[in-house]
Specification:
Elements: E1 8-12, H1 16-28, E2 33-37, H2 41-52, E3 62-65, H3 68-71, E4 76-79, H4 95-111, E5 117-120, H5 125-136, E6 143-145, H6 149-163, E7 170-171, E8 174-175, E9 183-184, E10 190-191, E11 194-195, H7 196-201, H8 212-220, H9 222-230, H10 235-249, E12 254-262, E13 271-280, E14 283-287, H11 294-313
Helix pairs in contact: 1-10, 4-5, 5-11, 6-8
Bound molecules: nicotinamide-adenine-dinucleotide.
Length: about 325
């Protein structure tokens, strides 16, 4: 992964998500070189100029607008190109348009001999991460999606606020599709090492009940809520993408809920969904298979079926 001169990241699609991610990478010093590619070359050049003008305030790195050929030797290609949700649209409504975009950019990378890792952010992210895996012909460990990293972050934030605990001390995962069929794995959630029931039993804060379903619905519907208010979401996903990047370039082996190929778990196969994974220099180094209760298992199977159905109806399989 690491080249003598440091890590090269290609950002493909530099609208709101891609450019905010590039800015986050720059702020965190996670890359030595960032190439920005967009169908709209003017936008990529404008973003490169704007970011470069901040160079005196950060550790030196190289940022420039380039072609897909310029992206071919990147260690990591992060894809945020394509249509985004309008108010009232679901992520699956973007399917046909964004499969075509994925075919074009991943096919272009492959034709230039790309052999790095691919991190998909474009929605519907699980279907498109699967598409990127198929179109790139890379090993599945090297092609991942942002999956439920953002939903998991939203759940940890809301739980933290509710319980008065730093979200970094909360381990609670949202699993499945990054979309309406996702689910919270409450049975495996831990606050400071305690199950939610045990934490609640010892808690003296006033707590309106029932709140767990409400909390999760706020997580599931967060994107719509934000899109209705300001048109798009990009800060938190950019931080999530940067967190995945950090675990890759620093080989941290962090456990993050990314979208990955699922095999040998609950009889699932040949589908990408969000599960906790160990992320390191080679991408998805281990897929964690949570031990879920019966209701959660049924919901995860239904969520995976939703993604699989979208894969089959999308033309990805030929
Ligand atoms: P945006 O419209 O601001 O930017 C999209 C960019 O893609 C534009 O600059 C456009 O020119 C470019 N583009 C389109 N087709 C292209 C192609 N074929 N080749 C190269 N570039 C192309 O949209 P955004 O708000 O940045 O969202 C981008 C994607 O990220 C959307 O699909 C959105 O739903 C998704 N998203 C995902 C998450 C997540 O959690 N995974 C969160 C937020 C947004």
């Amino acid at each position: 992964m690491r080249k003598p001169g440091g890590t090269k990241v290609a950002v493909i699609g530099v609208g709101l998500v891609g450019s905010t991610y590039a800015y986050t990478l720059m702020m965190k010093g996670l890359a030595a070189e960032i190439v920005l590619y967009d169908r709209n070359r003017n936008r990529a050049e404008g973003q490169a100029l704007d970011l470069n003008h901040g160079m005196p305030f950060v550790s030196p790195l190289r940022i420039y607008a380039g072609s897909l050929a310029d992206c071919a030797d990147a260690d990591l290609a992060v894809i945020a190109a394509g249509e985004s949700q309008k108010p009232g649209q679901t992520r699956l409504d973007l399917l046909q348009a964004n499969v075509a975009v994925t075919r074009q950019v991943v096919g272009g990378l492959a034709s230039h001999g790309f052999a790095g890792l691919i991190l998909m952010a474009t929605n519907p992210v699980d279907v498109l991460a699967y598409a990127a895996w198929k179109f790139s012909q890379l090993p599945s460990a090297r092609v991942l999606g942002s999956g439920t990293i953002l939903d998991t972050a939203r759940l940890r934030f809301l739980l933290g606020e509710h319980c008065g605990v730093d979200p970094r001390n909360i381990h609670a995962y949202v699993l499945g599709e990054h979309g309406d069929s996702e689910l919270p794995a409450w049975s495996t959630a831990r606050i400071a090492g305690l199950s939610i029931a045990d934490f609640c039993a010892a808690c003296t804060r006033p707590c309106p009940e029932p709140t767990w379903d409400d909390l999760f619905m706020a997580v599931r519907d967060a994107a719509q809520d934000i899109i209705e208010r300001k048109g798009a979401t990009y800060y938190a996903i950019a931080l999530g993408l940067a967190r995945i990047t950090e675990s890759i370039v620093r080989d941290q082996k962090s456990v993050l809920t990314v979208s990955t190929l699922v095999e040998d778990y609950l009889n699932l196969s040949d589908v990408y969904i969000g599960l906790p994974c160990v992320i390191g220099r080679d991408g998805v180094e281990k897929v964690i298979r949570p031990r879920l209760d019966q209701d959660e298992t049924e919901r995860l199977l239904a969520s995976a079926a939703t993604v699989r159905q979208a894969i089959e109806s999308s033309g990805i399989l030929g």
